[in-house]
Amino acid sequence: MSTRERRDEGKLSVVGVAPLDEQLYRRLLTAPGSTLAELTAGTEIGAARARQAIARLERCGLVSRRPGVPARFVPAPPDVAVGSLIAHRQDELERARLAAESLLADFHRGTRYEHTSQVVELISGQAAINQRAVQLMRSAEHEVMMFDKPPYVGAQDNPDEMDALARGVRWRAIYSTESLTEPGQLAAMTAFRGAGEQARLSPVVPTKLVIVDRRLALLPLGVDGPDVAETAVLVHPSSMLSLLMTHFDGVWERSIPFDQHLNGGQPPAKSEQRVLQLLSAGLKDEAIARQLGISLRTTRRWISHVMADRGVTTRFQLGLVVARELST
């Protein structure tokens, strides 16, 4: 068997073809018209196992036999035969999905409000929480609403969000202004914004939160402390979920839009726009310098220029001007 054959062996198991059956089918592709004895020559495959394998290949349409004795076998064209198996497997998966929906409906009818765990599900352990969050984001069909704030665990890129945005899912995120003090966070937010995320900044983000399709919400059980990331609750359809959605919409209306011009490597005119956005988010000079990748001295010089350009002398006056500019 060649290196390529060994690498590809077993690939048809996903459509229900056993490895032994696939091995015989591959041999037959290069030696059509072979007998069973010829196909198994030089192998340790016994006659009984070979007869069972060839019978299975015939049943699934991968092989046909010519009349005569001894029987000789001919492989079906892979594009047609394997394509038919794939279509059959897709039909089976769709039936399974529909069955799961029916089972879920039965589950909800039988257990709705029977116990508080049917409304609020407790999830313990960072690994379990991360797994449930991934499941939620991957199941999103229409909309994701998210509160984002430190501390962060792991990488800040979120491929599941990128996939959801690519599928056309509406993604609204409200970032805590303190998140902008985290290294690399501004770049991550900019990437999400470029992919279609609708993002806003708020100085008041009470907790992390993910709401998917207005049917499930995931949030940490605690607010502060070292164990805040170790326990979370999954909220099912209920008045509690409605309250969380209403709260999100209220914070969204009061938050500052994250301007699409927040990109790295921009000319000075747009760098000024970045300074305005970060100032409006309440960041201190040191945090602005880190986000822009420039020195503190340069940051303060830019801020002084912005103040002079707008005819103000205090940071408070500048804040009022910036708020008016960003709201128009």
Task: Describe this protein's structure.
This protein has 3 domains: 1-111, Arc Repressor Mutant, subunit A (Orthogonal Bundle); 116-257, Endonuclease Chain A (Endonuclease, Chain A, 2-Layer Sandwich); 268-327, Orthogonal Bundle (Arc Repressor Mutant, subunit A). Helices cover 51% and strands 15% of the residues. It is built from 13 helices and 11 strands. The chain has helices spanning 3-8, 19-30, 36-40, 47-59, 78-111, 126-139, 159-166, 185-195, 239-254, 268-280, 285-292, 296-309, 315-327, and strands at 34-35, 63-66, 72-75, 120-124, 143-148, 170-176, 198-202, 209-212, 216-220, 231-235, 256-257. The strands form 2 sheets. It has an 8-stranded mixed β-sheet, with helices on both faces. The termini are far apart. The relative contact order is 0.07.
Give a short account of the largest sheet: 8 strands, mixed
- Please give the CATH class of the largest domain: Alpha Beta
Using only CA atoms, what is the Rg? 30 Å
How far apart are the termini?
70 Å
Fraction of residues in helices? 40-55%
Based on the coordinates given, report the CATH architecture of the largest domain.
2-Layer Sandwich
For the largest beta sheet, what order do the strands appear in spatially? Answer: 4-10-9-8-5-6-7-11
Q: What would you give as the CATH superfamily of the largest domain?
A: Endonuclease Chain A
CATH fold name of the largest domain, please? Endonuclease, Chain A
Tell me the number of strands.
11
Number of helices: 13
Average of the residue pLDDT scores: 80
Number of domains: 3
Alpha-beta content class: alpha+beta
